[in-house]
Amino acid sequence: MFALPHDKNDKSVKNTVHDSQKPLVYPTASRPIEVIDMHTGGEPLRIVTSGYPKIPGEDILAKRRYAKTNLDHLRQFLMFEPRGHYDMYGAILVEPSLPEADMAVLFIHNEGYSTMCGHAILALGRYAVDYGLVKAIAPTTQVNIECPCGMVRAEVDVEDGKTGKVRFASVPSFMFAADIELTLSDGCTFKTDIGYGGAFYAILDAGQFGLEITPENVGKLTQLAEDICEVVNASIPLAHPDHDDLAFLYGAILTDGKDAYEQAPTRNICVFAKNQVDRSPTGSGVSARLAIQHAKGLIKPGQTRQFDSVIGSRFEGSVASTTTCGPHQAIIASVKGQAHYSGTARFWQEDGDDIGRGFIVR
């Protein structure tokens, strides 16, 4: 598939133009967008540090809606080729609306704007301390990050002036539905749970389909996840007690079926947005998995599990405490991982470079 998202004749890009119908404005060499690139367990994060237009809105969800309606061409500019790729991920820092927040963030990817991203939180925690957004305090510095799903509190390890691993406490995470039996278009019947960890996921054992969570199976697992999401979306109405903007299925998490508390790690692959494959174990997904494990009596508060991604990178997860979220019994998940810096860049578009506005080939 080849798509040049901003073709003037492409009716699918109506939602990317400004309300005033003014021409889309791209960064120039004299006024570029500057970024710092990081990765957490192999999953990229492009942090926009300057050059992005101001995003208005009385709260973070209003800012998210504004960005979707008015600035989506810049999401595509940064996430798509030639500057990004199909599985790129990004973070746009915006003005916080919550008084406790040290920073606020909108998450972007190949399809749009997610409500929560654990791997991004782990990276942003380090970034906030390293770049002086929050004063470093040894041995642990707290960074309060306002996300579309709510406040997420990160704790950054600091030793000898250097930052290390980061742990975050999630928003209330819960099991929305358990052991739902559904049927794919090919007649294959399966069972899935629906969990929320800042975003909603269908979470199920890939062993039902005779598949293991390995890099060699990524193509099959990705297609399977797409089929599962299609069936779940058609069958299960989602709802969140806090806001309708949170009530959508973000993706599918296929696991190795090892949900019972064991010393051995459990592996999963998360396929989200438009068939985007997470290289990390997925922080919001780990939160949702922990919520389901706790609801089923498979893990207790204080117990720790290791969650591996399809490429073998690892997060540590535990149930920090229990709470409620509307009518749901919920947990506060604790997720820990390591983010690393990759580099910096300055991006702009030359006059006449239509392809440089962003495209995808897949």
Largest sheet, spatial ordering of strands: 10-11-12-13-14-16-17-18
Termini separation: 5 Å
Please, how many helices? 5
**Annotation, overall tally of beta strands:** 20
- Output the CATH topology of the largest domain: Diaminopimelate Epimerase, Chain A, domain 1
How would you describe the shape? globular
The portion of residues assigned to helices is: 10-25%
Biggest sheet record: 8 strands, mixed, barrel
Uncertain regions spanning at least 5 consecutive residues? 1-20
What is the structural class? alpha+beta
Number of domains: 2
CATH class of the largest domain: Alpha Beta
Q: How large is the share of residues in beta strands?
A: 35-45%
Would you write up a description of this structure?
With 362 residues, the chain is of the alpha+beta class. It has two domains: 2-170 and 342-361, Diaminopimelate Epimerase, Chain A, domain 1 (Roll); 173-336, Diaminopimelate Epimerase, Chain A, domain 1 (Roll), CATH 3.10.310. Helix content is 17%, strand content 38%. It has five helices and 20 strands. The chain has an eight-stranded mixed β-barrel. A two-stranded antiparallel sheet has the order 1-20. Strand 16 and strand 17 (314-325) form a beta hairpin. The longest helix has 18 residues, at 218-235. Mean pLDDT is 94; it is low at 1-20.
Summarize the structure.
With 362 residues, this protein is an alpha+beta fold. The chain has helices at 60-70, 72-79, 118-130, 218-235, 283-295; strands at residues 2-3, 33-40, 43-50, 90-94, 103-108, 113-114, 140-147, 150-159, 162-169, 173-183, 189-196, 200-205, 249-255, 266-272, 276-277, 304-308, 314-325, 328-337, 339-347, 360-361.
